[in-house]
């Protein structure tokens, strides 16, 4: 009997495997690494929501991110904590206290109207003095701070390990250190998937009628060069810095130009400060490694965000990086949305999510569409040959 195979044990593949199992489909989840190692484990770990998206009046995104916050909090409460996010606001800047007060009111209204109750504290504001006492940000023109709560994943690798254990407990198969190297099709239909064991190079083939490619920025490569892969990569990275950190419960969202433009999060991480996320186009790159120039450019942004803090290249303790799918195949801009594409033979699906936040919703949406009525779980499915 042909199998359902999922490529990639990152957040997208793991949540799709769980959604399939909930509908009685036992998938084989395959990852080339033996431990989770892709973008999901190197992310900043924030399940974004609320005020962040109301600044740009992106209501569909607001609804999805609120639902996503609920998804994580309901299912994995021990892996999530509320993260108090503070954004300093400055005189004469577009992000004003008035704009945030409006967004807060709108957020409350939407929560009530759409019944989107999220078990996170209410958004609010704090004074100039409170901001300066908590963190040494630029003080010139500082009016106060906007405060909102996101959900923070305490330990993304541990969350993924828990999800994979759940997949196995419920009857799915997880093949670690195994790469999907190709697919076999006949008459425009998927017939089988070609695998290679990463440790001993052994190859094997599994008869499959459905393949879900959740390979992140590498999705589509298993189809070979003949088919056009609709995404190139964007490099994203965070820096672990030996610089002062804000209070442990908080993340500060700071911009190089106070009150406007891109902002970066600063939060305590052990005895250090995790700063991110920095992006740059990286089409064609397979390994996510920031260059010395990337780090210098990030440090220059951090200096602008924290003008009173001394830092240099020696302040960088570690980098956490990943590749993300881009918007249009040029690698110039990140694709923030979720995509379910079918660029290959019948039976081949590609799930590309730009955010850890909404990956579980994309998985559930696809599972609902493909397996609307849950069949009974099939007993004794495929097992690895060496088992
Ligand atoms: C530095 C950084 C910070 C981020 N911060 C946030 C944040 O705070 N909040 C947020 O919502 N999002 C954030 N993101 C985005 C988020 O992490 C990603 O959108 C999400 O993790 C992508 O998950 P994924 O499962 O699609 O890909 P990945 O996690 O990259 O997983 C893909 C997996 O597929 C495997 N694979 C690929 N090809 C094959 C193959 N042929 N055979 C076998 N295995 C294969 C890889 O080994 C990998 O394990 C951040 C990303 C980065 C890099």
Write the layout of secondary structure elements.
Layout: E1 3-7, H1 11-22, E2 28-30, H2 39-42, E3 46-47, H3 51-54, H4 59-75, E4 80-90, H5 97-113, E5 124-127, H6 128-134, E6 142-153, H7 156-169, E7 173-175, E8 178-186, E9 189-197, E10 203-213, E11 233-241, E12 250-254, E13 264-269, E14 272-281, H8 292-305, E15 316-325, E16 338-341, E17 348-353, H9 359-370
Parallel strand pairs: 1-2, 1-10, 2-7, 4-12, 10-17
Antiparallel strand pairs: 3-6, 4-6, 5-6, 8-9, 9-10, 11-14, 11-15, 12-13, 13-14, 16-17
Helix pairs in contact: 1-7, 1-9
The structure holds flavin-adenine dinucleotide (FAD).
Pfam family, one: DAO
Protein name: FAD-dependent oxidoreductase
Keywords: FAD, Flavoprotein, Oxidoreductase
Detailed description of the structure:
The protein has helices spanning 11-22, 39-42, 51-54, 59-75, 97-113, 128-134, 156-169, 292-305, 359-370, and strands spanning 3-7, 28-30, 46-47, 80-90, 124-127, 142-153, 173-175, 178-186, 189-197, 203-213, 233-241, 250-254, 264-269, 272-281, 316-325, 338-341, 348-353. The protein is α/β, with parallel strands linked by helices. The chain has a domain at 3-40 and 157-227 and 336-370: FAD/NAD(P)-binding domain. Strands 3, 4, 5, 6, 11, 12, 13, 14 and 15 form a nine-stranded mixed β-sheet that branches. 46% of the residues are buried. The mean pLDDT is 89. The structure holds flavin-adenine dinucleotide.
């Amino acid at each position: 009997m042909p199998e359902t195979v999922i490529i990639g044990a990152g957040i997208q593949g793991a949540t799709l495997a769980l959604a399939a199992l909930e509908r009685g489909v036992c998938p084989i989840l395959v990852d080339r690494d033996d431990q989770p190692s892709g973008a999901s484990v190197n992310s900043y770990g924030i399940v974004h929501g609320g005020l962040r998206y109301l600044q740009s009046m992106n209501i569909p995104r607001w609804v999805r991110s609120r639902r996503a916050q609920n998804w994580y909090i309901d299912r994995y409460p021990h892996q999530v904590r509320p993260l108090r996010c503070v954004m300093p606001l400055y005189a004469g800047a577009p992000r004003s206290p008035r704009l945030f007060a409006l967004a807060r009111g709108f957020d409350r209204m939407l929560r009530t109207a759409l019944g989107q109750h999220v078990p996170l504290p209410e958004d609010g504001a704090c004074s100039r003095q409170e901001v300066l006492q908590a963190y040494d940000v630029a003080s010139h023109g500082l009016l106060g701070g906007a405060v909102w709560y996101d959900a923070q994943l305490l330990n993304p690798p541990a969350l993924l390990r828990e999800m994979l254990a759940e997949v196995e407990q419920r009857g799915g198969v997880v093949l670690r250190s195994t790469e999907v190297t190709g697919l076999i099709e006949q008459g425009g239909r998927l017939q089988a998937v070609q695998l290679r064991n990463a440790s001993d190079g052994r190859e094997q083939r599994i008869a499959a009628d459905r393949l879900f490619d959740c390979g992140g920025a590498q999705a589509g490569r298993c189809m070979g060069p003949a088919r056009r892969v609709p995404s190139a990569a964007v490099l994203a990275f965070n820096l672990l810095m030996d610089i002062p950190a804000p209070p442990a419960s908080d993340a500060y969202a700071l911009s190089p130009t106070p009150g406007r433009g891109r902002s970066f999060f600063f939060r305590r991480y052990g005895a250090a400060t995790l700063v991110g996320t920095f992006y740059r186009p990286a089409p064609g790159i397979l390994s996510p490694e920031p260059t010395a120039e990337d780090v210098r450019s990030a440090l220059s942004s951090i200096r602008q965000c924290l003008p009173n803090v001394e830092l240099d290249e020696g302040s960088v303790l570690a980098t956490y990086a990943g590749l993300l799918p881009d918007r249009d195949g040029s690698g110039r801009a990140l694709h923030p949305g979720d995509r379910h594409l079918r660029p290959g033979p019948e039976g081949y699906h590609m799930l590309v999510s730009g955010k850890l936040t909404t990956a579980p919703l994309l998985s559930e949406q696809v599972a609902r569409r493909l397996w609307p009525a849950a069949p009974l779980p099939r007993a004794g499915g495929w097992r690895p040959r060496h088992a």
